[in-house]
Specification:
- Chain A has one domain: HU Protein, Chain A, CATH 4.10.520.
- Helix content of chain A is 45%, strand content 30%.
- In chain A, strands 1-2-5 form a three-stranded antiparallel β-sheet. In chain A, strands 3-4 form a two-stranded antiparallel sheet.
- Chain A is of the alpha+beta class.
- In chain A, strand 3 and strand 4 form a beta hairpin.
- Chain A has three helices and five strands, in the order H-H-E-E-E-E-E-H.
- Chain B is mostly helical and 526 residues long.
- Chain B folds into three domains: 91 residues, HU Protein, Chain A; 235 residues, no CATH class; 87 residues, Roll (Membrane-bound Lytic Murein Transglycosylase D, Chain A).
- Chain B contains 18 helices and nine strands.
- Chain B is flat and about 110 Å long.
- Classes of the chains: A alpha+beta (92), B mainly alpha (526).
- At the A-B interface, helix 1, helix 2, strand 1, strand 2 and strand 4 of A face strand 1, helix 1, helix 2, strand 2 and strand 3 of B.
- Strand 4 of chain A pairs antiparallel with strand 7 of chain B, so a sheet runs across the interface.
Chain lengths: 92, 526
């Protein structure tokens, strides 16, 4: 399922026009990214949490060439599903 | 990093604020959106949202684990989970504060300095290293301190420094200073003497060297080419000639072998020289050979030369002997002087020798290339070279009768004189070229082979002639049966021609070259 399919699905479910859905979806995503950029965790009830985590820098050694490389620290978005979703998933 | 958390309610507020929709609409929208995503994920689909990322439902296999507290083993049952991969845009946006950092390839511990201040653990080895380096520095400065102070305390020349170095600073300063004046005087004297001696030596040796040089060059060129200007020069200049003979005598053993080889070659090749001028030259050369023989027989002359050489060597020895006592004195004072003097002597001699050697060669080259006589000869040589490559003038007619005589004479001479070497070789080359240029007639056959089952032309060639490249001759002999050498029908009987052994001489690179040329010719033609 891609972006367009999602939009059409939502519009049919809520009986709103696709344009409006697209507008809302884009706004939602931009809000989410803005929040995540600030390092704020977003929790959607019954879905899960979007969280920014810091991956510490580390020394990686290439197994074949033995070249040691220092990987810098970075921030990544992590998603953790809620228990509700987990249960729903594993019900099947 | 702040660990703030906002819930969906706040998102709804923000959404309604930024769009024209009411909070209710926004809430509905969000619910619907996540509902659909959930639904799809539970159905096992992946959901891809632009600018946000991809949600994927993932099956985690059941695995064994250990209860940390009790140590009991238990199985974590397999479960499905949602994995979220952020879109590259989101990824970059989130990672902005660290975007400037790049992976650093570490070659040594020094690059650990680039690590952030946070990891002090990795900096510890660096600190240890720097401490060690400081220690080593201190040690070095201590070691260097002694010679440095000595240098400061003295104005004496290298001589004293030499002693210091050799004795590795064990001698106290005062003693060295006491020794210094005497040694310095001695040093000066020795140097003067050395210069005188070396000059004598060099003047003597230089003459020898220049002579030797010319001789060596002469001999080399005689072997390499069939230019004999040196011979003529030698005829004019008897002394140098005799010396050249001396040279030859030294190398006789080796050259006799060469002679044998060339003789065998000249036995079956009727030596042919193309240009009349060459023939003329040959005669000329022969005259010189006979002269040489006569001179060779005049052993008196040679012995006199030998005695001359002996005298020269005696003189050298004398000089060496005269140097010896001086060296001995120095030895008493310090054995290092001896080494120093020997090195200096060697360097001076080497420099002079190289200078004269180079000048001699320069002179010789000039003479060789720019004298008129030699120009003529080089022209002849060029002709010969052209003949070798089959490009010579067609009018060049071989004169077998004359050359047969010549060859007999040469063979006679060959035993004694070394200078013959070059001529038979070139003659044999010429004849081979002629053999190649002559149209090959295949009327004698040494066998027949059936084509097929690994019996290729190359294999047959290898069997009969010893090399696969000679298949071209088989092909030439069977041209009536073989239309395309690459495509011969199986069962074709091929006659193996008898080929002039000179054509398939494996030891002669010209044969292989010629065969390759023919090969290219036939393969292209098809």
């Amino acid at each position: 399922m891609n972006h367009k399919e999602l939009i059409s699905a939502i519009s049919s479910k809520l009986s709103i026009s696709k344009n409006e859905v697209e507008q809302m979806l884009d706004t939602t995503i931009s809000i989410c990214t803005d929040q995540l950029k600030e390092g704020i965790t977003i929790g959607f009830q019954s879905f899960g949490n979007f969280e920014v985590r810091k991956k510490e820098e580390r020394l990686s050694v290439h197994p074949a060439t033995q070249i040691r490389t220092l990987i810098p620290p970075k921030l990544v978005v992590n998603f953790k599903q809620s228990n509700v979703l987990k249960d729903k998933l594993n019900e099947i | 990093m702040s660990k703030e958390k906002i819930s969906s309610q706040e998102i709804i507020d923000l959404l309604s604020a930024q769009t024209d929709f009411t909070k209710r609409q926004s809430e509905d929208f969000l619910k619907a959106m996540f509902g659909i995503i959930e639904e799809r994920l539970i159905a096992g689909e992946t959901v891809k949202i632009k600018n946000l990322g991809t949600f994927k439902s993932q099956w985690n296999e059941s695995r064994k684990s250990v209860n940390v507290q009790t140590g009991e083993e238990f199985v974590i049952p397999g479960f499905r989970k949602i994995s979220f991969t952020p879109d590259s845009e989101l990824k970059n946006l989130v990672n902005e504060p660290y975007a400037h950092l790049e992976a650093v390839v570490l070659d040594s511990n020094h690059e650990v300095t680039e690590v952030d201040d946070e990891d002090t653990e990795e900096l510890e080895p660096l600190n240890i290293l720097t401490e060690q380096a400081l220690e080593i520095k201190g040690l070095l400065s201590e070691i260097q301190g002694i010679p440095l102070t000595k240098d400061e305390s003295k104005i004496e020349a290298e001589a004293t420094v030499e002693i210091e170095e050799n004795n590795t600073a064990e001698i106290p300063l005062e003693s060295i200073i006491q020794i210094d004046p005497s040694t310095e005087n001695l040093f000066d004297k020795i140097q003067e003497k050395m210069h005188q001696k070396s000059e004598e030596l060099s003047s003597l040796e230089v003459v020898e060297i220049t002579k030797d040089e010319s001789e060596i060059e002469n001999s080399i060129i005689e072997i390499d080419d069939n230019i004999e200007p040196e011979l003529i020069v030698a005829a004019n200049n008897e002394e140098s000639k005799i010396e050249a003979e001396e040279e030859i005598k030294i190398n006789e053993e080796i050259k006799i072998q060469e002679n044998d080889q060339t003789e065998t070659k000249s036995n079956y090749t009727a030596p042919e020289i193309s240009t009349s001028s060459n023939v003329y030259e040959e005669e000329k050369i022969e005259n010189h050979y006979t002269e040489n023989i006569i001179e060779n027989n005049d052993k008196d002359e040679i012995t006199s030369i030998a005695s001359d050489v002996n005298r020269v060597s005696e003189a050298n020895n004398l000089i060496d002997n005269s140097l010896d006592p001086v060296d001995y004195k120095i030895k008493r004072k310090s054995k290092w002087w001896l080494i120093l003097i020997i090195i200096l002597l060697a360097i001076i001699l080497g420099l002079i020798a190289t200078y004269f050697l180079s000048s001699a060669t320069r002179c010789w080259v000039k003479y060789e290339l720019f004298s008129d006589e030699n120009k003529e000869k080089t022209a002849n040589v060029k002709n010969n070279i052209l003949n070798i490559f089959g490009l010579g003038d067609p009018e060049i007619a071989p004169k077998p009768a004359k050359i047969e005589q010549d060859s007999v004479a040469i063979q006679a001479v060959a035993e004694d004189s070394i200078k013959v070497d070059s001529i038979p070789v070139t003659q044999s080359k010429d004849t081979i070229v002629d053999v190649f240029n002559r149209p090959r007639v295949y009327d004698e056959f040494i066998g027949t082979e059936k084509f097929g089952q690994g019996n290729t032309l190359t294999n047959i060639s290898k069997k009969y002639y010893g090399h696969k490249d000679f298949w071209v001759y088989i092909y030439e002999a069977n041209k009536d049966k073989i239309k395309n050498p690459d495509n011969i029908s199986v069962g074709t009987s091929i006659r193996i021609p008898k080929i002039d052994p000179r054509l398939i001489d494996l030891g002669n690179p010209i044969c292989l070259k010629k065969a390759k040329e023919l090969h290219d010719l036939y393969i292209e033609k098809k």
